[in-house]
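Quick one, T. Sequence first:
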Amino acid sequence: MEKRLVQKNKKAGLTISDVILVGVLLATGAVLKFFVGSMFNAGMKPNFIIAMYCLAILIIKPRLSEAIIIGIIAGAICQVFPGTPYINIISEPLGALVMALLISLPIKFRAYSLLKPVLATFLSTLASGLTYLGVLYIAFYAGADVKAIPFNMFSIIILATALANAVIVQILYIPVKLALGRGRDD
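Structure tokens:
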């Protein structure tokens, strides 16, 4: 008997169903940001759009360039909401890139496989939030007309958002993946 090799074809790009999934998840994140975010009045609101692009990236596993495009679209959606203009167009692609890099790590531990959604989402949200904060302070000190809120207030909101996003993605990952017929395990 000859040894049979199973060859997995590499994806050429996002499929139509991938694009629709990203659109639906980003729209869901926008709705959450609008309604749940309206309960916060600390100058900066939690960004659930990050959770949704993290979930999309986990499920569709895009190439790095595609993940950056997802981040740019997420940043553009964030421009609809009140806040500091244009900063999300920088912070969200970086968060999406971090997410794509973290899920592409060739770590084969079962525990990592189970915790990948929570860990990757938490770190991606931190990357996005800290980038947002850094760009905001750079703009403030460069003389731009932006309101700089104290670092401790920002950091609390960033950490709380990272935790909330990590929990949301961990809870939704397997059910959404199964509902879409994308298999149970990575």
